[in-house]
Amino acid sequence: MPDFPSADLPNTDLIGQPGSRKLLDTPVLLLDLDVFESNLHKLADFAAGRSHALRPHTKTHKSVEIARRQIAAGAVGVCCTTLGEAEVMVGAGVGNVLITSPLVAQRKIQRLLAINAQADDLLVVADQSQNVRDLAAAAQAAGQVLKVLVAIDLGIHRMGVANPESAVELARLIRETEGVEYQGVHAYAGQLQHIIEYDERRAAALATNAELRVVCDALDAADHSPRIVTGSGTGTFEFDASLDVFNELQCGSYLFMDSDYNAVAASPEERLRFETSLFVQTTIVSANHPGLATIDAGYKCFFPRGPKPAIAAGAPLDTEYEFRGDEHGHLLYADAAYRATVGDQVLCVTSHCDPTVNLFDHYHCVRGDTLVEIWPVDARGRCV
Amino acid sequence: MPDFPSADLPNTDLIGQPGSRKLLDTPVLLLDLDVFESNLHKLADFAAGRSHALRPHTKTHKSVEIARRQIAAGAVGVCCTTLGEAEVMVGAGVGNVLITSPLVAQRKIQRLLAINAQADDLLVVADQSQNVRDLAAAAQAAGQVLKVLVAIDLGIHRMGVANPESAVELARLIRETEGVEYQGVHAYAGQLQHIIEYDERRAAALATNAELRVVCDALDAADHSPRIVTGSGTGTFEFDASLDVFNELQCGSYLFMDSDYNAVAASPEERLRFETSLFVQTTIVSANHPGLATIDAGYKCFFPRGPKPAIAAGAPLDTEYEFRGDEHGHLLYADAAYRATVGDQVLCVTSHCDPTVNLFDHYHCVRGDTLVEIWPVDARGRCV
User: Fold this and answer.
1) Which of A295, A288, A324 lies closest to A312, judged by CA?
2) Which segments of chain B belong to CATH 3.20.20.10?
């Protein structure tokens, strides 16, 4: 583990102390390693069983340590959303990074070439011809080659070419242009991942795969068959892997399972039920009114959209959380006469894990009741 | 300015280059220094004119550089919400820090004593007797004295004693206990700061001041007159300063003026109209559909509660922003046939500035069209 100044890591002295989980100076991002490892291997085994490549998205965890563990468990590489995240991963020696957002500005392309020079098999996406030409010209000038996937829009309109003809056209441009190398397609149907009902989500995934199939068929027909067809997420990987379209899965949230994803129904057989491994541990700092307590975690610890933070331990499970500013939240006890104890710790399940992780500098990793490691959130804040 | 690794600061080479504001690698937190300085001095002059002490809240900016400028402009010191923020400020030599949240855990109290030993006039708050005893015992054991304010609850129930009798009791306990030193009271009426209508907000502030007056009268009568009566915010300071209750103002957001505070009506005479100095600068990264473009800023760049990000430049001002995931947002142009240009930069006004600043590592400071400095958000993420 790297060295940190002590004020930055006030809990280091607790590492290895039995019972330290409940002594942590809070608020901290807590990772239950046993659950985390179970989730990690469940998906790795599933992908291996289906002969699907796994390229987990690091936007969820932003951690070099976790990326390395995913690769050790069988992933072919990782995804990053931003160039800044990719710089962190490549800089730490993580190989086979796919950057899933188009990089369009000249300054970004120069930074991209700097990490491409030291990276093993870096992949980028493009969704328009000018960007391909810009990438190619810069790569040629630097004496490099950039490996490019055509981004396909599966209905979010966030990025990607809008139809099969444009996909073929862009693939042809990439293949005809020096400095860039065509690798296949990237497509992410984010709008499907959180459909609660299993059958409804399955039907939507099948329809989207069929749409992508049309694109791939057009590419095949034009002799631009994609080597890589990458996408999918924690909500749809099971369906995406059952068809003959994607050959690579990008799931990220399966490691942590926030309340957003916990609400999404697993398969009726629950073959692949992931459990919650990620929490925010907090402390009651004020309790001068019955039925009410204040904890030290507000907007700067919990992403404030989606389900509110839920109680996992330290208060009755029907206690409600209410945001009470940037650094504080209220616990509203069902028993209006309840007298909370200042200093007690309360463990919370978060909503959307990605932007929650991004609020913290470190993971506090526990096994049972013991803090065993502290991992940096290496790419936290690397939005640029 | 401190040295940083270059991947962490991709825009440093632009410092001092005319026109560099529009070349910035995005998304970045942008600070317009001319507007910022005007806001800074407007409030400093106001407080000086009223003989009120100004102790601005650093939870808004989390920046040592900005804290120093506030003190240079006349502030008596600064406020911090968390111990982690205070460690950063005290560690950088910023004096007269008030920590506005109760620190109740033993481990936090030990960290507190570590910075109290090197701090100039550190102040803490307490709202219950056990905490006062814990602070005192730890301070005595360390051969130190902790300066304590009694926290008063002005209706949020977030912290503070619930009535004048409890205030008197706690003040007496502090005065009778070795290791702690009574300094006065801290009270913050956060619920009033965003009342839109000027007269309604004024009436609410007067009522709250009257409530606090009762507490102070009770303290006077018991011979525990507070030396410091500190509180207030950007929404109510004008009223709070016009009465004889508070003698110290804690405003923070006046420096930046987010859309939340821009919606709060200034005085009818507009004597103290602050302007927006803080923005998020973004780039259009995809635009394959008419009337629609994708920018590189989503939940990880914009705090997602309150008004949506508003356009300040780079797109028609009636263009609507819509969140489209962690790292992306849509621009919905009023003209449905509009064809956006990939690579164009778009400047956005943020909603609540505090949690927005907390998402970034740096301020990109501009004068006119030129990037002139990059300041770290030193206490970003220091929630513990």
Assistant:
1) A295
2) 33-256
DSSP bridge pairs for B323: B329
Query: What distance in Å separates residue A343's CA from the closest CA in chain B?
Result: 6
Q: B96: pLDDT confidence band, cut at 50, 70 and 90?
A: very high
Look up the CATH superfamily of A33-259.
Answer: Alanine racemase (3.20.20.10)
pLDDT higher than 50, residue B2:
no
Domain with CATH 3.20.20.10 in chain A: 33-259
Pair B345, B283: CB distance under 8 Å: yes
In this complex, which of A157, A294, A327 lies closest to B289 when CB atoms are compared?
A157
B329-332 and A329-332 beta bridge pairing:
unpaired
What is chain B's alpha carbon radius of gyration, rounded to the nearest angstrom? 22
pLDDT at residue B1 tops 50: no
pLDDT of B211 over the 50 cut? yes
CB distance A296–B130 less than 8 Å?
Answer: no
Architecture field, domain B33-256: Alpha-Beta Barrel (3.20)
Express each pLDDT in A87-142 by its tens digit.
999 999 999 999 999 999 999 999 999 999 999 999 999 999 999 999 999 999 99
Within chain A, all domains assigned CATH 2.40.37.20 are found at: 6-31+274-376
- Chain A residue with CA closest to B330: the answer is A158
Give B356's Cβ-side CA count (13 Å radius). 33
Q: Do A288 and B107 touch (CB under 8 A)?
A: no
CATH superfamily of A6-31+274-376: D-serine dehydratase-like domain (2.40.37.20)
